[in-house]
Amino acid sequence: MKHLTKEQRYEIKAYLHSEKSITFIAKALQVNKTTIYRELKRNSTKQGKYNPDFAHKLAQERKERFAYNRKFTKTIEKKIRSYLEQEQWSPEQIVGYCKKQGIEMVSVERIYQYIRQNKADGGTLYKHLRHRLKHRKRPVGGKHPPIKDRISIDQRSEVINNRERFGDWEIDLIIGKNNKGAIVTIVERLTGFFLMKKLPLGKNAESLANTVIDMLLPYKNFVHSITSDNGKEFMQHKKISKKLLSDFFFAHPYASWERGLSEYTNKLVRQYIPKKSVFNQYDDKQIKQIQYKINRRPRKKLNYETPKNLFFKFVNQKVAFAS
């Protein structure tokens, strides 16, 4: 598939400004009109405006994210080892130098992943880093095994990505002071309606799975997919998926924007439960009241409808699916 260039994106902007049709734009750029529809859906701003520079930046970031695993060739591995072992360059310096010189290279995080895996396998590459990975709080030696059978967000359909269907959810945790206590939040992507509950055993994966199932079981027919981050607390994702008959996807590491609604919703909760709060100060009744309050708030994005009212209109099939 041929990708749009930056110049073509400027042409799209000009044609849109002149109120030309999608069909006209597609013919002018000699591409299929679905390419134009996809471009406007995927690369417009949150306000629905099309900016060529912003669109090109999004497209390039997506391209790099999808491609970097495939680009990790033996040649690149040899270059990384050489820069580390002979020059003691940091991953940032390796990527920056290669980019400036036009040398093919993977991302900074991909190099760190390679170094961490090398250490877990008994290698010594990490010793050539100034900090020897000591500054990284993420586990290095394999103490927390990767989540088995995880399905990447890359495999989500466009129906989910574009919020065209009711019943796709995002899930996240809010953690208490000193990493003690946890609250799980689950938000429906189309309506913004959310559920929250304290986890009696904190980040325990089995307990979390049982809690999530209890929370969503009443709406089982309206749970098509759930998307989470890569926290080990979601290791029982298959149990959740099987019980609710839903798909379960995992976002890319350190890509919180892929679960933007969860991040936004958690910020709303923080108005009532500030960061560094001690969670044992809040009982289940108070947690439920906070949930009710937030679901009663009218949202500009929903044309000042409330998440609660809109959610139950869908449940009762009183509205058509958004497109």
Short overview:
The protein has 323 residues and is an alpha/beta fold.
Provide an overview of this structure.
This protein has 13 helices and five strands. It has 323 residues and is an alpha/beta fold. The chain folds into three domains: 62 residues; 55 residues; 163 residues, 2-Layer Sandwich (Nucleotidyltransferase, domain 5), CATH 3.30.420. The protein has a five-stranded mixed beta sheet with strand order 3-2-1-4-5, with helices on both faces.
**Would you report the number of β strands?**
5
Largest sheet: 5 strands, mixed
What is the level 1 CATH name of the largest domain? Alpha Beta
Put simply, the count of helices is 13
Biggest sheet strand line-up: 3-2-1-4-5
What is the helical fraction, as a range of percent?
40-55%
Overall mean pLDDT stands at 87
Percentage of residues in DSSP E strands:
5-15%
Q: Kindly name the structural category.
A: alpha/beta
Topology:
Elements: H1 6-17, H2 22-29, H3 33-43, H4 52-67, H5 74-87, H6 91-101, H7 108-120, H8 158-161, E1 168-175, E2 182-188, E3 194-198, H9 205-216, E4 225-228, H10 237-244, E5 247-250, H11 260-270, H12 284-295, H13 307-315
Parallel strand pairs: 1-4, 4-5
Antiparallel strand pairs: 1-2, 2-3
Helix pairs in contact: 1-4, 2-3, 6-7, 9-10
